[in-house]
Amino acid sequence: MTWEADHRAFLDRYYRATHRVYDVSRKYFLFGRDGVLDRLLAGDWATLVEIGPGTGRNLARLHRRRPDAALGGLEASDVMRAHAARRCPWARISPGFAEDGDIGAVLGVPPQRILMSYCLSMFVDKDRAIDNARRHLAPGGELWVVDFSDLAARAMRPFLSAFHVEAVPDDLLHRHGATHVEHGPLRYYVVARFPA
Ligand SMILES: C[S@@+](CC[C@H](N)C(=O)[O-])C[C@H]1O[C@@H](n2cnc3c(N)ncnc32)[C@H](O)[C@@H]1O
């Protein structure tokens, strides 16, 4: 089995079992997402692709507040892609992997913003995923990341590793040229921004 088939099979198994309770349960531990959406919405852009949109929760919030924007997603799990497509019929949700997916093809143009919300921690190859996203941004565009940081890594390690999740270390973000890195309370989560 290739790593892609292996990772997709894991994700589909996991989300088939949990997608019905996903949004309700994640409200209690995927912190910082709405702050990032507010800050994204304060910027000037018309095209955004979310990598790993999951149930489409973030795309739905963005669409409500910026209905004219072109929104898309690149999703590795068939189960989650079907879920997001049902919830966000106005979005284009393509199958593919963060590490090597053609992000520019999702909307047919390089997006001005790319969002990775609590998915970098799940990727098989985080370095390739960041490089791939930056390479596909429109000139002047930005990649935004929000994900688990140090506190989550310490407090929830057994839980996270059971679900193939690894907190995001700051040095990964700095090594890839993040221009802005900040942490939520007690360093539970990290928010980072990268230029194109
Ligand atoms: C924890 S969920 C987060 C969902 C959503 N971004 C949110 O903030 O609620 C992670 C999502 O990333 C997707 N995912 C995991 N690995 C991926 C990869 N290598 N490429 C693309 N999507 C991936 C999962 O299928 C899932 O939908």
Automatic annotation (TrEMBL):
Q: Does the keyword Transferase apply?
A: yes
What does the UniProt keyword field contain? Transferase
State whether keyword Transferase applies: yes
What InterPro entries does the record tag this protein with? SAM-dependent_MTases_sf
Q: Name one GO molecular function term.
A: transferase activity
Q: What is this protein called?
A: S-adenosylmethionine-diacylgycerolhomoserine-N-methlytransferase
